[in-house]
Design goal:
The complex is a heterodimer of chains A (143) and B (265).
Chain A lengths: L2 H15 L6 H11 L7 H26 L8 H9 L11 H20 L8 H18 L2
Chain B lengths: L3 H15 L5 E4 L12 E5 L2 E6 L3 H5 L1 H14 L4 E7 L7 H6 L2 E4 L3 H9 L13 H21 L9 E2 L1 E7 L2 E6 L3 E2 L1 H8 L5 E4 L2 E4 L5 E4 L12 H8 L2 E4 L4 H16 L3
Parallel strand pairs in B: 3-4, 4-5, 6-9, 8-12, 12-13
Antiparallel strand pairs in B: 1-2, 2-3, 7-8, 10-11
The chains are: A mainly alpha (143), B alpha/beta (265).
């Protein structure tokens, strides 16, 4: 199993067992991501990887906030803020530094590629860095 | 006795062939906050269970097994259960048995399948306390390492694998210096588990009041599919990372790591 497939399988196993309800669509996005390796040209693949991973992330944050009894906001940055405002003793609270860092490295990056015409990640490493941070953030906040 | 790879494969094959299709079975799971956790992971609506198949070394020096388990407890969600799969004809020590939520013999297929199908029935022996504190510490240390990565624009050369050059203390903080090259993941893993950021005890990691530690590398250990994986895992284990090698530069990173660590004392 390649490194990327192994990562997605790990995330799918954790998401499937989570007490957070309605995560099936997040699971399906991970399945899509596993199958993008042969899509060409490469910049189309980069954009699709960005789209599916941020969409999975967006929906996962939404479901996690509902699980905590909160009304989710519509933007990634605002949802991260809501998770940052959970009680300090909560094991799934997003710490301050992660909030600032991931709002920038995930939320802002996602907005650029989703809203700006002709904007593409420049290489695979840039996409991998974004996806890696999304996975890290997800496993910090996922109950 | 078959080697570790063969044992993992055998367990993976058994679980894949016997569990329902909605169960996800992963051999050597790739967790974004860990370099090494359980050897086989199973997740489904009925729960999450990680099977540990100790290496020969871990069967003798069980502290490394306990530390691997402790970091997994912090990084995986609280509902995860961890099971020790012990080689047939050998008996684990009572201490080792006590760390895990369940223990099963490698050849005991009915028990392996039962535990994989119904992990929620296992009572968690050690609820990881201090996860919020550990995550806050992790976030502060990771921010420092990423700041170091951003200021270092040297091209990646991947000359060779680095070894540990020197281990010492600077202002009460442990500093591990590497030789030229990139440190291997296995070397990083073994060093990370012996830092001062956590107290590892009987399969549980508790954040300590002591200063964290610094890994002074020559080249960033950039992983292929998740570039920051090793830097993130190091921060999770209580270490910052830098490529500074001069005493003055290293002093600066030691001080900023010390400041970050102090906020959690």
């Amino acid at each position: 199993m390649s490194a990327a497939r192994n990562r997605y399988a790990t995330l799918r196993a954790i998401v499937a067992s989570s007490p957070v309800p309605n995560m099936h669509s997040v699971d399906r996005e991970f399945l899509e991501l596993e199958q993008l390796n042969r899509v060409g040209p490469s910049r189309r693949r980069f954009l699709l990887q960005t789209l599916h991973s941020t969409r999975a992330f967006d929906t996962a944050l939404n479901r996690i906030l509902v699980y905590h009894g909160l009304m989710p906001e519509v933007a990634i940055g605002k949802m991260l803020r809501q998770l940052n405002r959970l009680a300090p003793s909560s094991p799934y609270r997003l710490p301050d530094q992660f909030y600032h860092q991931w709002r920038q490295s995930i939320g802002n990056v996602r907005n650029r590629f989703m809203h700006e015409a002709d904007a593409y990640p420049s290489n695979q490493r840039e996409v991998d860095a974004l996806v890696g941070e999304i996975h890290g953030c997800l496993l910090v906040v996922l109950p | 006795m078959p080697n570790g790879y063969a044992r993992q494969r055998r367990l993976e094959t058994l679980l894949r062939s016997q569990l329902d299709v909605d169960a996800t079975v992963v051999r050597r799971p790739d967790h974004p906050l860990l370099l090494r956790g359980p050897d086989v992971l199973i997740g489904h609506r009925g729960g999450l269970v990680g099977f540990f198949l100790p290496t020969l070394r871990e069967q003798i020096a069980s502290k490394s097994l306990s530390d691997r388990l402790a970091m997994s407890r912090l990084a995986y969600p609280a509902h995860a259960r961890f099971v020790l799969v012990w080689p047939a004809k050998l008996t684990p020590s009572p201490d080792t048995v006590a760390w895990f939520d369940g223990v099963v013999g490698e050849d005991d297929r009915p028990s392996l399948l039962r535990l994989a199908r119904t992990p929620k029935k296992l009572h968690s022996k050690h609820h990881p306390g201090g996860r919020a504190e550990a995550m806050a510490k992790f976030s502060a240390l990771y921010a420092i390492s990423l700041g170091e990565l951003a200021r270092d624009e040297r091209p990646k050369e991947r000359r060779r694998y680095a070894t540990v050059d020197h281990r010492g203390f600077q202002k009460g903080m442990e500093v591990v210096r590497f030789s030229r090259g990139v440190p291997r993941a296995a070397v990083l893993q073994s060093i990370m588990l012996h830092g001062r950021g956590y107290r590892f005890e009987r399969g549980v990691a508790t954040p300590t009041n002591e200063a964290s530690s610094v890994l002074a590398v020559d080249e960033w250990p950039i992983a292929r599919s998740d570039p920051n994986h090793r830097i993130r895992a190091a921060a999770m284990a209580g270490w910052t990372m830098t490529t500074r090698s001069d005493d003055e530069g290293l002093q600066a990173i030691v001080e900023s790591t010390n400041r970050a660590a102090k906020t959690f004392r």
